[in-house]
TrEMBL record:
SUPFAM superfamilies: lambda repressor-like DNA-binding domains. It comes from Bacteroides gallinaceum. It comes from the Bacteria. It holds the Pfam family HTH_3. The lineage of its organism: Bacteria, Pseudomonadati, Bacteroidota, Bacteroidia, Bacteroidales. Gene3D superfamilies: lambda repressor-like DNA-binding domains (1.10.260.40). This is Helix-turn-helix transcriptional regulator. SMART domains: HTH_XRE. InterPro entries: Cro/C1-type_HTH, Lambda_DNA-bd_dom_sf.
Protein backbone atom coordinates (compact mmCIF):
# COMPACT_ATOMS: atom_id res chain seq x y z
CA UNK A 1 0.00 0.00 0.00
CA UNK A 2 1.45 3.32 -1.05
CA UNK A 3 1.67 5.99 1.64
CA UNK A 4 0.29 9.34 0.52
CA UNK A 5 2.27 12.44 1.40
CA UNK A 6 -0.49 14.72 2.59
CA UNK A 7 1.38 17.52 4.31
CA UNK A 8 4.51 19.58 3.82
CA UNK A 9 5.41 20.12 7.49
CA UNK A 10 8.89 18.63 6.98
CA UNK A 11 9.57 20.87 3.99
CA UNK A 12 8.35 24.03 5.73
CA UNK A 13 10.40 23.24 8.85
CA UNK A 14 13.49 22.88 6.65
CA UNK A 15 12.72 26.13 4.82
CA UNK A 16 12.37 27.92 8.17
CA UNK A 17 15.51 26.22 9.53
CA UNK A 18 13.49 24.78 12.43
CA UNK A 19 13.62 21.32 13.97
CA UNK A 20 10.98 18.82 15.00
CA UNK A 21 12.05 19.43 18.60
CA UNK A 22 11.47 23.17 18.22
CA UNK A 23 7.98 22.55 16.83
CA UNK A 24 7.16 20.13 19.64
CA UNK A 25 8.18 22.77 22.20
CA UNK A 26 6.13 25.49 20.50
CA UNK A 27 3.02 23.28 20.39
CA UNK A 28 3.62 21.56 23.74
CA UNK A 29 3.39 18.17 22.01
CA UNK A 30 5.46 15.01 22.38
CA UNK A 31 8.30 14.93 19.84
CA UNK A 32 7.11 11.47 18.73
CA UNK A 33 3.81 13.00 17.58
CA UNK A 34 5.65 15.67 15.59
CA UNK A 35 7.81 12.97 14.02
CA UNK A 36 4.71 11.07 12.88
CA UNK A 37 3.30 14.24 11.31
CA UNK A 38 6.60 15.10 9.61
CA UNK A 39 6.94 11.61 8.13
CA UNK A 40 3.26 11.54 7.11
CA UNK A 41 2.66 8.45 9.25
CA UNK A 42 -0.30 10.27 10.80
CA UNK A 43 -1.89 13.63 10.14
CA UNK A 44 -2.67 16.47 12.54
CA UNK A 45 -6.31 17.43 12.91
CA UNK A 46 -7.55 20.67 11.38
CA UNK A 47 -7.26 22.68 14.60
CA UNK A 48 -3.66 21.53 15.08
CA UNK A 49 -2.84 22.25 11.45
CA UNK A 50 -4.01 25.83 12.02
CA UNK A 51 -1.76 26.09 15.12
CA UNK A 52 1.20 24.68 13.19
CA UNK A 53 0.66 27.24 10.43
CA UNK A 54 0.57 30.07 12.98
CA UNK A 55 3.75 28.89 14.72
CA UNK A 56 5.55 28.57 11.38
CA UNK A 57 4.10 31.86 10.10
CA UNK A 58 2.66 30.29 6.95
CA UNK A 59 -0.84 29.69 5.65
CA UNK A 60 -2.55 26.34 6.11
CA UNK A 61 -2.48 26.04 2.31
CA UNK A 62 1.32 26.15 2.48
CA UNK A 63 1.25 23.04 4.69
CA UNK A 64 -1.03 20.96 2.48
CA UNK A 65 -0.18 19.13 -0.70
CA UNK A 66 -2.55 20.09 -3.49
CA UNK A 67 -1.15 17.86 -6.22
Amino acid sequence: MERKLLNRIKVVLAEKNKSNKWLSEQLDKDPAIISKWVTNTTQPNVEMLIQIAKVLNVSVDDLLRTE
